[in-house]
Amino acid sequence: MQLPLLTLIVFSPLAGAIILAMLPREPTVGLRRAAFVFSLVPLAFAGWMLERFQPGEADFQFVERARWIPQWGIEYRLGVDGVSLFLVLLTALLVPIVVLASWGDITRRVKEFLAFLLVLETGMLGAFLATDLFLFYVFWELMLVPMYFLIGVWGGARRVYAAVKFVLFTLLGSLLMLIAILYCAWRVQAESGSFAFGYDRFLAVPFTAREQLYLFTAFALAFAIKVPLFPLHTWLPDAHVEAPTGGSVILAGVLLKMGTYGFLRFAMPLFPTAAETLAPVVVALAVVGIVYGALVATVQPDLKKLVAYSSVSHLGFVMLGLFVFTETSAAGSVYQMLNHGLSTGALFLLVGMIYERRHTRLIADFGGLWSVIPVYASFFLVAMLASVGLPGLNGFIGEFLILLGAFGPRPWATAVATSGVVLAALYLLWMYQRVVFGPLTHLENAGLRDLSAREIAVLVPVLALCFVMGLYPAPFFRRMEPSINKMLARLRAPAVVAATPSAEAALHP
Amino acid sequence: MTAIDVAAFTGHWEVALPGVIVAATAMLVMAVDMIVRDPDADALPVLGIAGLAVAAAAAVWLWGESPIGDGFASTLRGDRYALFFTVLLCAGSALTILMSVDFLREHPLPRGEYFALVLLATTGMIFLAAANDLIVLFLALEIMSVAVYVLTGMLRAEPRSIEAALKYFLLGAFATGFLLYGIAFFYAAAGSTRLGVIAGAVAHDGARPFMILGLALVLVGFGFKVALAPFHVWTPDVYEGAPTAVTAFMAVGVKAAAFAAFARVVLAALGGIAVRWSGLLWILAVLTMSVGNLVAVSQRSVKRMLAYSSIAHAGYALIGLVVATPAGGAALVFYLAVYTFMTLGAFGVLLALGRRDEPGEGLADWAGVGFRHPVLGLSMVVFMLSLAGIPPTAGFAGKFYLFSAAVDAGYVGLAMIGVLNSLVSVYYYFGVLVQMYMVEGTRSLVPPGARPCLLATIVVAVLVTLLVGILPAGPMELAREAFASLH
Which among A109-118, B84-93, B439-448 has the top mean pLDDT? Predict the structure, then answer.
């Protein structure tokens, strides 16, 4: 019996949450320190997992299996492959950062906030690592409740509306997915004589084209709401704007990736024919989302809303990359998921920090910050440029690969999507200019404190990773590509395979 | 009509053992109450719970002995189906008694009568689940109902309690009339009130007009007892007016027992003409789910909301009966078990947050309660999530079982309607959480004194709800075995 590494990763935050719940309410510093330590535990385990992960291996590693509900063939099954590996690491990294970041803006009901955050982490890690669809569904729903509380209790003025909207949107999708999962399990039984919810068992079922269409739609709806794909994105600006900073970081950094991850892991390989049939629709929506998100972001007067809409645009790129079915753009998409998690996470953190100081997020209330808080402005610059996709930072590589791989199969969509890159430069640079450059227009801003040591500690790891991923992506791709290609092998036509270079080859010709 | 066979009456007396134990306990409670005369004595609830525990133990023993034959000229069955419900009903009643102890300490109610009536109602329920003859079924139903009518009106000083009792009694008597008429038609068609004989007549003659009439009338009678739409109209008023602990008892015990008998009659006697009722039940299930959920959304009183939610849950459970496969029936049994604990728990929290002078049933009264009473708050979170069907709670496992049975049997549309209803229900269940955690409140409804028994009830319900949610395999297997013994 090996050490159940993945179980430790998934459940150590939950254990932390339970211990936290039993600690006294005061002093809050003790609670914060404890939560920070608890959140480092899964990160340490995840780091160990990365260390022992075999690059070049496409299959699941560190697989754990145990019987759970034998009547239905439900198993407790965890496994990690190249697709989920870095998403797990991203999650494990962002949670301690959020704990640190919450030092400033969460001052009320600190214990509950931290406990919910840790429960949420268990849900997220479990959803990335589950390879039994029942288990996946349980973790998927487990994420919902703590996030609901994070938005609803610690959010802004319209928090209740935003929280309820978030829950209802998400549940609408996931409940239909539940029916689809049940149908799949029933098909497994029809094929093999016994129920099973294992991912590999679902893959083995030869679904008819018609079945695939329905099932794909049910899965896709759940994931598309989470991504969010245009026009299902309307919950996102509300949720982001109302959520506390930490909630926004987790939401943008990890929860949205849950949707794209779901497409890549489940919806696409399980129902390849339907994915191909519906690809034009998804690509069209993705491209519309890219342009729409960018345009709406441009005119936002509120910093947080601007970043929220930029997420719609960025996730559109990821969806485009997934649904052109080339290895290059799929790798770019997975990379872009990580990039977006880091750069948008950083932007939300920065917006939160300035909000703590000024209690406003309106762009018009700022201007000329460079002279007052230069350290903040520099960090903001890096995060903003990473989000723009400046070469040398991570965003560039993801977007470049997506567009490179997408151009062959879908030149027109790619051409329109490219305008999204230009627009991103427009709205982000313009925003930065209005906030940071120019004369100091508001006297209230003259007395702003610059970043504290804690805040710098929050931002440094995230932005350092933006540089690392922008300058040296090879180690990431080496671990990701075999798994991504294996999943894509179920999808694309053989002719396309040869036509596009692998991500590594594309970057290092 | 066959002559009375004495040997048939004396054989397999043990099938009646759990019910007899509970009935004897009821008598004992009344006798002790007269001797002790201490209004605060703990002897009565302890005695009641002990009696229920012994009855449940007897049922567990019989489960091990099964299959045992029918008793009392095969009017009572000792199959695992009956035994499963016996244990469940004993557990529900024991929790009801435990829940009521603190309530009775604060309200001037006759404790002896209260506990004795709960036990007598439980006796009726146990026989209801075991009845293999429509006359015995009717007797059991009336034993249960009369006791519950009285319990509903126990708060004699409160007009709404009296109103509820009267409403429940009048409408209940009316529905019983339907049931009796139905039984009469069955007797006319089959020449007997034994379920087995009716099944034989159905197999032999098919759906004759009298049989169909009987089916329709019995459906109305049971529809009233389990509160299926459109026979649910009494439920909100009665549930709201009755003392909260009695409401909980009605919502779980009466419903589970009536459902047990309903499913037995429909499947064991009328299984041969399933085509005649499955479409009808499909409509009733959809109607019940939708009406319960949609009306619950607009409720401003938690108690009333829970009443409508209990209607909706009857609709979900009915899916199992529509499907009527072994998996569907097992899902029904499992769901009723799960429903018992989560609903009892939710009513327990409702009771715990109220005071005699201020029941705290309005949704607005719950503002900010979650942070002020962390244990009650978190318990309510568990119950609301479970009722809404969110994992990892028992309610999710139950719904999953029901919906998977429906999908397996080809009822994908029904399962879809079920999940969409769950989505609607999330809105109002989460609405409670919104009040508890996201709205600031200042009032504290909880009285200064401790209520250990009530808290114990809630904790037990939380533990069961979570444990069954995380490890559903064991209870599911029991439900499967229970249902398998029906045939």
Answer: B84-93
- Taking CB atoms and an 8 Å limit, are B403 and A171 in contact across chains? no
As to burial, measured by CB atoms within 10 angstroms (0-12 exposed, 13-18 middle, 19+ buried), residue A310 is buried
Range scoring the smallest mean pLDDT among A183-187, A265-269, B72-76, B152-156: B72-76
Please name the amino acid found at residue A403.
L
Contacts of B423 in chain A (CB under 8 A): 168, 171-172, 175
Structure tokens at A173: 């999708």
- Cβ pair A186:B439 closer than 8 A: no
Which segments of B37-109 does DSSP mark as H helices, in order? 43-65, 80-106
In a domain, B3, yes or no: no
Say if residue B6's pLDDT is above 70.
no
The tally of domains found in chain B comes to 1
Partner residue facing A141 (CB), from B390, B437, B477: B390
Backbone dihedral angles phi then psi of residue A66, each to the nearest 5 degrees = -155, 150
Please check whether residue B191 is in contact with residue B202, taking contact to mean a CB–CB distance below 8 angstroms: no
Task: Compute the average pLDDT of residues A238-259.
Answer: 88
Contact A167 B430 (CB under 8 A): yes
Residues in chain B within 8 Å Cβ distance of A168: 423, 426-427
B420 at A interface, C-beta within 8 A: yes
Alpha-carbon span A213 to A503, nearest angstrom: 30
**Residue B333 within any structural domain of the chain:** yes
Which tens digit of pLDDT belongs to each residue from A63-99? 888 888 888 888 899 999 988 999 999 999 999 999 9
Determine the structural domain holding residue B427 and report its residue range: 8-484
CB proximity B132 to A under 8 Å: no
Across the interface, do B403 and A112 touch by the CB < 8 Å criterion?
no
Task: Show residues of chain B in contact with A148, CB under 8 Å.
Answer: 430, 433
Write the residue in B391, B407, B420 that is nearest to A141 by C-beta. B391
How much of chain B is in helix, strand and coil states, percent to nearest 5?
80, 0, 20
**B306-355 confidence digits (pLDDT tens):** 999 999 999 999 999 998 888 899 999 999 999 999 999 999 999 888 87
A168 CB neighbour count, 10 Å cutoff? 15
Most confidently modeled range among A52-61, A127-136, A480-489: A127-136
Do residues B348 and B274 touch, judged by C-beta distance below 8 A? no
Q: What H or E segment, with its residue span, contains residue A99?
A: helix A82-105
Q: Please give the average per-residue pLDDT across A409-420, as a whole number.
A: 88
Residue A496 has pLDDT above 50, yes or no: no
Q: Which residue of B has its CA nearest to A154?
A: B438
pLDDT computed for residue A156 by the predictor: 80
**Do the beta carbons of residue B361 and residue B258 sit within 8 Å?**
no
**Residue B476 is encoded by which pair of tokens?**
């599911």
Rounded to 10 degrees, the C-alpha dihedral A223/A227/A229/A232 comes to 80
Q: Which of B222, B231, B220 is nearest to B292 (CA)?
A: B231
- B438 belongs to a structural domain: yes
Please give, rounded to a whole number of angstroms, the shortest distance from the CA of A425 to a CA of chain B. 38
- ipTM for the whole complex: 0.88
A494 — pLDDT class (breaks 50, 70, 90)? very low
Write the CA distances from B67 to B82, B169, B256, B271, integer angstroms.
Answer: 12, 38, 23, 21
Model confidence at B14, in pLDDT bands (50, 70, 90)? confident
Contacts of B422 in chain A (CB under 8 A): 171, 175
Point out the residue among A70, A153, A186 whose CB comes nearest to the CB of B437: A153
Contact A175 B480 (CB under 8 A): no
- Retrieve residue B435's tokens: 């009040």
**pLDDT averaged over every residue in chain A:** 87
Can you tell me the mean pLDDT for B94-106? 89
CB contact under 8 A, B396 and A109: no
A141 at B interface, C-beta within 8 A: yes
Q: What is the pTM of this model?
A: 0.90
Question: Is residue B167 assigned to a domain?
Answer: yes
